[in-house]
Amino acid sequence: MAGVMTGGIEMPRPEPNGGVSNKQVQSTGSLRESKQSAFFHLQHDAGNNFRAFSSSTAAETAMTTNAPSGPATMPHRQLPSSASLIPIDLKIAEERQILYDQRIVCGWNKDKIPKWAAAIEDGTRSFFWICLAPDAEKDIPTFKRDGTTYMPVGHVSLDKVDINEPDAVPDTTLADPAKGVLTITSLFVLPAFHRSGLGAFAMDECERLARVPPFGSESIVAVTVNTLSPRYCVGGVEGPDGLGQWEREGADRPVPQNNMLWYEKKGYKRYKEAPRYTSVGKQGETLWWHACFMRKELL
């Protein structure tokens, strides 16, 4: 499945555990837990090159924080004080493996990691781990950066271009630095950490970093997201162009909640709906899924 991506928030999709070791499954908080959780919804998916902001202590300090830059907009448990965003370095094998394992839990786009790595290199993607302090009681892999150990419990990206389906034309309404717009995408948090405030924290930080070089620039005036259309979600549209799409796909997963409502509470406004994501139907046909495109002005 190419992925019914929700852009800013991604929904874990249960997949057969083919070719995935028990260690990989355990390290990301089991695929069974992923299936039960069904998706992430907070009740509930730069510079000149990567080295410019992954190896510079000053740059990393500028984008790392221990508190959200704005108040939470939905009730959630207390945000862990150790929460921080740390740039992902896909040149490091252990970080590539951690990202791959998290994409397994998410359910799609594990095949896009090389494409994302290239975007990091050319400065169009600022890709971050959502990190907490290591917890010996949790079977979650860690990594070290500049002598500090971090526990990545999710990831999020701030992009200068729309990295979408293969061979599709990028949607410049989502990202166009010349017009002052960046897009937040690939937001994912492990199921065990849902309702912890980490999703809101990651969004708040990306909105802040949109105006901080090298991740963005002072000329950025808005950020965007895209998420699965409510027509396919709980309470959505009956029939083949809505909830019936799940039957056409034949995937064994629950109908998701409507993530658009969460974005609206974060200040995002819908500006269009259009076909965006693809998956493979039961008969081998390509299914197109609509996305809601949303934008938030940065004050």
UniProtKB/TrEMBL annotation:
<dbReference type="Pfam" id="PF00583">
    <property type="entry name" value="Acetyltransf_1"/>
</dbReference>
<dbReference type="InterPro" id="IPR000182">
    <property type="entry name" value="GNAT_dom"/>
</dbReference>
<protein>
    <recommendedName>
        <fullName>N-acetyltransferase domain-containing protein</fullName>
    </recommendedName>
</protein>
<feature type="region of interest" description="Disordered">
    <location>
        <begin position="1"/>
        <end position="32"/>
    </location>
</feature>
<dbReference type="GO" id="GO:0016747">
    <property type="term" value="F:acyltransferase activity, transferring groups other than amino-acyl groups"/>
</dbReference>
<feature type="domain" description="N-acetyltransferase">
    <location>
        <begin position="127"/>
        <end position="213"/>
    </location>
</feature>
<feature type="compositionally biased region" description="Polar residues">
    <location>
        <begin position="19"/>
        <end position="31"/>
    </location>
</feature>
<dbReference type="InterPro" id="IPR016181">
    <property type="entry name" value="Acyl_CoA_acyltransferase"/>
</dbReference>
